[in-house]
What does this fold into?
Amino acid sequence: MDFTLADVYAHAGSLAKLHPNNAHIRDKIRQQLQLLRDLGLLDFLGGGSYHLT
It folds into this structure.
């Protein structure tokens, strides 16, 4: 399954409601995507595109 960073950002509002003390939702999204990439669960395809492995 492929998706883009913009696809994930589309859920930033919902995540902000779940985590009201986090003022940096987009930064956290990118951090978690990098973590999932490093764990081998995602492939970064470039240009903000990802593939779920």
Q: What stands out?
A: The chain has one domain: 2-52. The chain has a mean pLDDT of 96. The first strand starts at residue 2 and ends at 4.
